[in-house]
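Customer escalation, tier 2.

The customer says the design service returned an amino acid string that "doesn't look like it belongs to this structure." They asked us to rerun it and document both sides in this ticket. The original structure tokens are below, unchanged.
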């Protein structure tokens, strides 16, 4: 008998077909239906939903969960591990398109692309613009990348090779390849904040990175600097950011993620011309979202077969010997 799997996000047709070759697939579209279907499921696949230990209490047969995302802050990983549930994610396939999103935020914020496009649309373009609407250069400036993982390194490549930028970074470990190929320099967070023209947050959300950037950190940035966040909203203390933008502590912000998503329409951030706000589109291209769904489906099929060796968040569940 094929194992029962619950999908809680719409999947491309070819991915559904692939899954159906290996599993019995149930598709649901809300948290309550997911929780109910987990009662006799062995696997689950989806994204963008907080999965609580309580939801798993009624899932005694569950063995594998495949999230269609690189981030796994929607899960209590130690709890999954205790229950013997393997968690797989989708790194690599989204690295380049997510780095493109970060760079589009850098360019849009620096060159005031959204603000000026709205200005043209509103019929304000009567003569050539003056200095009050000029932007600031990106090429040749200093980028500070907080967290040099896969996406951070792809961003460093764009910055150094495409835009001749000086690259500073913070990371738990040095990144010799980025240092050799992009001239990246590992510095303390304080140095990065003090020297970068663009501070780009590329860390996962963990208890250590929650509110990593608050009032004190924003105050250490240059007044001309721009904060870019396409990692997770809670990495920034949003109230402090709003205050810093109001006070002119920093020049602006390019944001793809927020403390509460969807961002409420009455957020003060949306009234600020020096803020570019996107609806968490990091990896949202047709090609990449398809690749992520396929990767997640492959991960799940292999995890249920006990053969998954890559993309595992808690490898000790499937390969206890190797993880010790
Ligand atoms: C990811 O893959 O983690 C993206 O941010 C979507 O949540």
């Amino acid at each position: 008998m094929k194992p029962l799997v619950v999908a809680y996000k719409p999947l491309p047709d070819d991915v559904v077909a692939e899954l159906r070759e290996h599993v019995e697939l149930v598709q649901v579209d809300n948290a309550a239906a997911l929780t109910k279907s987990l009662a006799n499921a062995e696997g689950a696949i989806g994204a963008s939903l907080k999965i609580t230990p309580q939801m798993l209490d009624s899932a005694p047969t569950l063995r594998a969960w495949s999230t269609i995302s690189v981030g796994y802050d929607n899960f209590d990983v130690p709890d999954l591990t205790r229950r013997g549930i393997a968690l797989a994610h989708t790194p690599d396939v989204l690295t380049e398109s997510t780095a493109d999103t970060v760079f589009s935020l850098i360019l849009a914020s620096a060159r005031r692309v959204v603000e000026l496009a709205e200005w043209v649309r509103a019929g304000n373009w009567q003569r050539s613009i003056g200095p009050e609407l000029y932007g600031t250069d990106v090429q040749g400036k200093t980028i500070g990348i907080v967290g040099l993982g896969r996406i951070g390194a792809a961003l460093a490549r764009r910055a150094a090779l495409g835009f001749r930028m000086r690259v500073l970074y913070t990371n738990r470990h040095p990144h010799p390849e980025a240092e050799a190929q992009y001239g990246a320099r590992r510095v303390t967070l304080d140095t990065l904040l003090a020297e970068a023209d663009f501070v780009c947050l590329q860390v996962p959300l963990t208890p250590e990175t929650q509110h990593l950037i608050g009032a004190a950190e924003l105050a250490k940035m240059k007044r001309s600097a721009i904060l870019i966040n396409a990692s997770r909203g809670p990495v920034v203390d949003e109230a402090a950011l709003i205050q810093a933008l109001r006070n002119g502590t920093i020049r602006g912000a390019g944001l793809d993620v927020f403390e509460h998503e969807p961002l409420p329409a009455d957020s003060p951030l949306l009234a600020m011309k020096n803020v570019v706000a996107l609806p968490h589109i990091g990896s949202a291209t047709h090609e990449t979202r398809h690749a992520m769904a396929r990767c997640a489906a492959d991960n799940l099929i292999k995890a249920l077969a006990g053969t998954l060796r890559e993309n595992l968040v808690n490898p000790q569940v499937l390969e206890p010997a190797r993880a010790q």
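Tier 2 assessment: The sequence is consistent with the input. Residues 306 and 318 are 6 Å apart (CA to CA). The two ends are 33 Å apart (CA to CA). Sent an explanation to the customer and offered a walkthrough call.
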